Every structure is written in structure tokens, then in C-alpha cells.
Amino acid sequence: xxxxxxxxxxxxxxxxxxxxxxxxxxxxxxxxxxxxxxxxxxxxxxxxxxxxxxxxxxxxxxxxxxxxxxxxxxxxxxxxxxxxxxxxxxxxxxxxxxxxxxxxxxxxxxxxxxxxxxxxxxxxxxxxxxxxxxxxxxxxxxxxxxxxxxxxxxxxxxxxxxxxxxxxxxxxxxxxxxxxxxxxxxxxxxxxxxxxxxxxxxxxxxxxxxxxxxxxxxxxxxxxxxxxxxxxxxxxxxxxxxxxxxxxxxxxxxxxxxxxxxxxxxxxxxxxxxxxxxxxxxxxxxxxxxxxxxxxxxxxxxxxxxxxxxxxxxxxxxxxxxxxxxxxxxxxxxxxxxxxxxxxxxxxxxxxxxxxxxxxxxxxxxxxxxxxxxxxxxxxxxxxxxxxxx
Length: 390
Hints:
alpha/beta; two-stranded antiparallel ribbon; 15 helices; 47% helix
């Protein structure tokens, strides 16, 4: 029953919420707006809207548009330099999880010496403490998936070492998060699915790890319901605002889940896929290993059976009685979203890489293995990868 929960973020949610940005208490006088290197944020008018809102609030801004789909150290270094050169006193992440994660990392590095990897714990990270407090962060997601707008964590890749690792601390919680499902109407079906499954697995992993608590369980089941019952509709009709709103709520709620709880090793197992093969979207990697991963938990951890039944019911299988009903619900949702046939081989992944992936997952995200209900050996990891391979 016990838990500790503190999310120091002003959370503004709902249709048209971005139009309220200028009315919020903003944490500085000049923002570095961080967006991806793609075209959609500009083409869809989202950048113009945010710039207009900041101007109404009397806040100046500079724009940094150098963030890749899987943000890397060089993105962060360049963004931090841009913040310093333009005298920015806060960072605004606008876009998908990559932009907001990068905004957090930029906020950490801009007022400090060295590069982001100096402050990463685990793997080849330097493990240094920040001398100066990160710049304040504002998060405005245009996708529903990571929930990073309501947690403190960021994921950055070190291309030189093929390490994709998390960082952050209590000072990298956004001070303000604006979640407006109207900004998500233009996301194509495939990416709606990838991002939605990322959100779903955040809460699924939380619900089956060993850190169960009343608050985390409550958030997780509601998030699983919101995403599990609405993602297919959002993929089928991107303009379905009700479905978009539910999935966006589920994604943000999953961010809260990670603020009171954590994940387990499924996320650790995915990170090497997209670290060694950056063209793999994070959500796609999770989808590809999910069936084998959760089946392994069901087959080897009877204590979790009731929890898998709970999740199947949350996803819409009201009559669920067996833990494998969750797998059936998961596969059905993947089929409805058009992502059930994803293949590792289509991304250039080869089976001989699996032992390397297993070692990398444990060295970079070992903390998540410590949250599993059962101990997974390296042989177990290789088998899960192999069972997922097509």
C-alpha cells in the first residue's frame, strides 16, 4: 500500500490547451524551443502557435531544430551551446518524446561544463553530479507515447558505444506540461501505433514489476484502459478526437506511473535494438519483443497471473479468466493497429546480435532487471529475442 509521490509539474490537459500557454506562469524570459529535425512541427503550424503564445506572454525565444528521432549526445551538445549563445533561461520541448527528452538533457548541460554523458550513471557514463541546477523545462508533446512530460527522465544514445541510457533527476521534471490532443491529429497511423504501444507498455511493465503500490497500480490500470480501448480507433481515424484524447490521457498517466513506480526489463531489452539500429522506432522494438517477453513472465511467474487477468480486463476483455487472455488482447490490438507483422529482419537485425543485445541491455539499464519479479538470465534474454525474431 505504501508509496511516495511527488510530481512538481503544472499539468494542463485537454482540447485547445496549447492556447492557454500564454496564461501560464512561465519560468523565464527567453525560451529555447527544441524541436526535431523533421518538418512536421513547422508544417502543421505547431511551432507558429507556440511562438505566438510566447509572444503574447512577453517571452522571447530561439529555436533549435537539430534533434534526431533517437536523440544522441551531439544533438544535446549543440542544443546546449545554442541555449548559452542565445541567453535562454528555460527550455521548451515541442514535439514527440525525442524533442522533450532532448530538451531535458539540454537543460542539464547548458549551465554546466562537459557533455551529457559525463552526468550519466551506468555503462560508460561519467557518473558526475551536476554542479549547477538544470534550466527549467516546459513540455508540449505533439504525440502520445512517452509520458515524458510528467516524469523526470530522458533517454539519449551514445552512438560511439551503442548505449541508449536514461538520465535525469528531481530537477528535470518539467515545471509545466501542456497536453493538447488537437496537436496529435496529424500523426500517421503507423507512428500513432508505435507511440501508443510505448505508453501502454510503460504501465504494463509497472503493473507487473515488484514495486507494486496502491497509487502506481491505480494509475497503471486506468492508463492501460485508456490506451488499450482507444488506440485502434486513433489508428483507424486520426481525426477521432475522442480516441486521441483518451490515448493522450493514457500516455500522460503512464508518465505519472513512472514517477511513483518504474518499469521492468522489457524496456531494457528494447534499447539495444534501437541503439544498434537507430532506424528502429522505440515503440516498434517494444511491439516486436512484447509477445515473447510477457509470455515468458506468464509461464515462469504464477504470482503474476492475477495481474495479467486484471490488465486483460482493462483492455476490454471483461470475461478474462486466464493470464494468456492478456496476450490474446495484446495481439488483437496489434492486429487492429496494423503492427502485428513487424519483423526484426526488416530493420537489418540479425540473430547473431542477440547475445550482444543481452549484454548491452544489462550493462546500460541494469536497474530495470532489478525490478523484475523473476530473475532473467542472459540465456532467457537471448531466447526472448529469438522467439520474437522474424
